[in-house]
Amino acid sequence: MKSLVAIAAGLLAGGAALAQTAPPYYAGKTLTIISGYGAGGGYTAYARVIGKYLGRHVPGAPSVIVREMPGGASIVAVNYIYNVAKPDGLTLGAVNMFNMYSNYMAKTDAVRYELRDMEFIGNARSGNAIFLMRSDRYPTLDAMRAAMKAGAAPIHLGHAGRGDGHHILGVAMEKGLGANFHHVFGYRGGGDIDLALERGELDGRAANLNSYLISKPDWINNGFVKILAQEGILKDGQMTRDRRIADVPTIHELFPNNKIVEQLMDYVSVSDILSGIYIAPPRVSPELLAILRTAFLETLSDPDLLAEARKYNLDITPMGADEVLRVVDHALNVSPDVVKLVTDLTRLQ
Prior knowledge:
Elements lengths: L3 H18 L8 E6 L6 H13 L8 E6 L6 H9 L7 E4 L2 H10 L12 E5 L5 E6 L6 H9 L5 E4 L6 H13 L3 E4 L5 H10 L4 E5 H7 L1 H5 L3 E6 L2 E3 L2 E3 L10 H4 L4 H15 L3 E4 L5 H15 L2 H9 L7 E2 H12 L3 H12 L2
Parallel strand pairs: 1-2, 1-3, 6-7, 6-8
Antiparallel strand pairs: 3-12, 4-12, 4-13, 5-8, 5-9, 10-11
Helix pairs in contact: 2-13, 6-11
């Protein structure tokens, strides 16, 4: 007759064997990355490359698909992820951090989420915002100034949404130049803005350099557009010129003593520090969050992904969830005066 000790030992061994043979949670499942923009832009391009390799780093090797959900400069996707997507670890979002942040801070009607409750998975890239114009219209800032002095029609810039990061950068350029810009809103994403630019409906736009090198490298190389200013990249606490466009001045260089420009650019900087943010719905379990966060960082160091990223000129500068949360916490504590300044400038035009 077996002793109680022997029976207990057998049960424990059996339990261990079952635990070892139980399939991982993600086995046989599909993980969906929701891109807040349509096809043809940088967000979806990054999501597709990341999705191609993410499954191999998640225990259970789930299938990964990318679903496009454009609208409101990715706010439609943010609202969906926060309110509709199940907290089962099977939905991620590739969204515009600044639009999510600025709409939340300004308490706009579009907001259906609590940013402090959003789960952050990581950040794939830090970006550099650029200001560009059709070169057949305004090849230089001096050409823009000359047109303004001559009483030319307002310069038309296209944006996805009022108050998004690119709109604020356009406003900063407008204030710095003393220009008269006509801001056109409602485009579904960068691809639609570029179509309007190509058709001649727009004179220029603000964009993310990394995304533009993906979507329209030919326009830069053949001179159809001219990059006239850049936000720059953060290096040793200072905004410096991106080496890829080292001949283009930063906005800080162009308008060094303009307080409004400085405040606008400080506020908008979160959009570029976290320009490749990935989120998950609130209430995802800590265990699944840990799996996704680890897999995300492992994916961004996967040699095959990095080789593909180089092929398509995708800049990869990974940031883990802890570092992302520090940036978000700092941004959420910005001065109310600065929030009001941005809100007034972007709502009342």
